[in-house]
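Worked example 3. Consider a protein that binds fe (ii) ion.
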Amino acid sequence: MMLNLTKMRSLLDARQPTYALPQGFYTDPEVFSFDLAAIYARTWIFAGFDVELPKPGCYLSLPIGRSSVLIVRDRQGALRGFHNTCRHRGAQLCATGRGQRSWIICPYHQWSYDLDGRLANAPRMPEAFDRAQHGLRPIHVQTVAGSIYVCLAEDPPAFDAFRDQLAPLLAPHDLGNAKLAFESTMMVRANWKLVMQNARECYHCGVRHPELAVTFPVKGRRPVQLADVARFDRFRARMAVAGLPVGPVEGDWWQAMRFPLNDGATTISMDGKPACARLMCDTANGDIGSMRWGLEPHSFAHATCDTVFMFSAMPTGPEETVVTSKWLVHKDAVEGVDYDVESLTALWTQTNSQDLDLCENNQRGVNSIGYVPGPYCEEAELLVMRFDDWYCNEVRTYLDRAASDDQLVPMRPRLASVTAGGSRGS
Ligand code: FES
Ligand SMILES: [Fe+2]
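Given these inputs, the predicted complex is written out as structure tokens:
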């Protein structure tokens, strides 16, 4: 598909910084196609966690826009990433979700791939057929302290600074000794940018998330509380004694920091008390606030003493986004003894459901002939402005590159080496 670059440029020119985006960014099918090519196919996507693939042959299949990717643990234990599409006639190899296989066998005509992506068997193909040229096409995979990231681009954004900055913040949560306790998906009838703008501010939280507001500092300049500097400094000093870094750290497409929860709360739950008795991090008796990290374009996560919660927004249509949520607990936590899924997931499930209503209602209003972008509140929507600036900068960068490189316009990845394996996690 050719992308409508002229339209993108004019939308960008119509955008006023510190104001919500022009209508077409939230509604136009051509913008949706552009976003998949220029944003979701070019940025690092937070895919999940190492512990979701505990053994060789375990895989995680997930959609990224119209594409699907496959993350596989190979026979040596390394993670590899592939486009989840058969090299014969393109059938999807593994349905969305997790599983374990000795071989990746296409359900259509049974071409079989080894866990390193090499084509091992292609029934009835002639003797002269070159199997070595028809392995799975690799994608980039990286891991940081037990969290997994993938990128569809051949030339992904630099990753090292993100890893170096996130690793010390996340390491104390011991994700290597975690397990996935629950996962949910939710269809939101709203453009992905409305979903993410909503996720980047707490302007609405005090009124619309009364349960979240019990534990979460909803009045900060950011989603995290920096407004009360003296309180944050006390928290920082206490964490220093406990040996936990707090940040904040950030780059173009990420932010991370540990921040204090409301007084009396040791986790983000309905009552502020751990929802899982077996803690993932028992430093300072678990009174360690929350370590939040967020990636543009699509995700955020909170690591508290008892759980890690992950939120990921995937566009599936111009006005349709699928939100995936995951909850980790300590691997030795016993369901029904140390935690029950309903209590563990109650807070974020409720919050997600409230946000679904807000985002769908926002989409309805944005669709109006009377919609005019309004100004952000700098006090409360700083990270929304940051998100918009990042997005518009990515759009502009893509347009500029497209103008100087015709090859970029249709944004079809070149068919590079198909015999090489995927990038290894680290
Ligand atoms: S499409 Fe996969 S074997 Fe034919
Ligand atoms: Fe919200």
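Take a moment to read the result before moving on. Confidence is low (pLDDT under 50) at residues 408-426. DSSP finds nine helices and 17 strands in the chain.
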